[in-house]
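Lab notebook page, bench 4
Experiment: in silico fold of construct C2
Operator: M.H.
Input chain length: 421 residues
Purpose: comparison with the prior construct
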Amino acid sequence: MLDINLIRKDPKKLKQIIKDRQLKFDVDALIKLDKKKRDLLQEVEKLRAEQNKASAEIAKSSGATKQKLVMEMKAISQRVKESEPELKEIEAQIKQMMLELPNIPQPSVPVGEDDSENKELKVVSQPTEFNFKPLDHAALGEKLDIIDVKRAAKVSGSRFGYFKGAAALLEFALMRFAFDLLIKEGFTPIVPPVVIKEKAMQGLGYLSGGGEEDTYHFTKDKQYFTGTSEQSVVPLHMDEILAEEELPKRYAAFSTCFRREAGSYGKDTKGILRVHQFDKVEMVSFTKPEQSDKEHKYLLSLQEKLVAELKLPYRIIQVCTGDLSYQSANTYDLECWIPSQDKYRETHSTSNCTDFQARRLNIKYRDQKSKKNELVHILNGTALAMGRMIIAILENYQQADGSVVVPIALQEYMSGMKVIK
């Protein structure tokens, strides 16, 4: 949610933001409603002042004069009472419109219509080359009997998979590898719930702009399965005031995530690249506003460190305005090289959500200097998404005989297994 004062001050800027983000929103309607609300508030406050004045005069008067004043006060009270439902209705409309507004992109974010206009920042190491015809992860998984999507489709439907044997070991090796690095960096490990209340999901901004279509949820209970790990970690401090000395406050969360993949019909249908259920380790950070840009680069550096230790080719891109999520003010994606597709695919993402989610969820910190409660800035970033990292490992580490070498960084977690065959 944005600060309404920013909208009042510069509605043209908001219109440009909406345009840059390739969204539709009636800014003029919001401004008109806000003015109507303020005018009505002013009228109610004036009436209440008249009430107070009449009340004081009644106390000092008697007889016919007092009776007249009492009648006038009743009339004023009735006008106030009649105004309150209208005021509540206008406030509800404004709140709903405000919930549909996206975050303001930071100045460094490139303007673009869609992901084709994302900006490449750097490429690290050359794409993997083979002296044989490489297989894709689906063929490797089936050949090695470690990924089974056929039986998963029979049991659960399309876009699910079983991880068996070495793939199951790889998942937990990746989890331990990520946790070990992040714990050394001062992150608190956490295994959060995977079901959250509607209030929390709404506060995060994931239901705006049609986002609800990509969720699995229980309508009767008003609860949602998390689609990414930070969705149940950020609300951990909902309606709380953090101590300044706690910041930055960092969590490393492991959880299962669920997505309907709405709008992805026909895309990445083979294998486990785009699935309805996956596990990941996610980084979440709460910072002071002046720290958030630095913290964002720090999260990105940790993503690079993890992928570099796995010795996978990758590149970094900055997401353009038209491809930004609703809650993000700036997003960097790390994409690993996927040989079978002959291109880089997103395996990591890190976003600075500034105070957007904090305002909606009422998460603040106590500023020691000003002695005021201020909104925190909230950031998130993928540490490792297990399915996509397993894809990258299988395809980049495959051998001519169909076996797969386990990256050195993971071998200590693989019960002595160095080659999957």
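Observations: The domain at 4-99 is CATH 1.10.287.40 (Helix Hairpins). Residues 122 and 316 are 5 Å apart (CA to CA).
Next step: discuss at group meeting.
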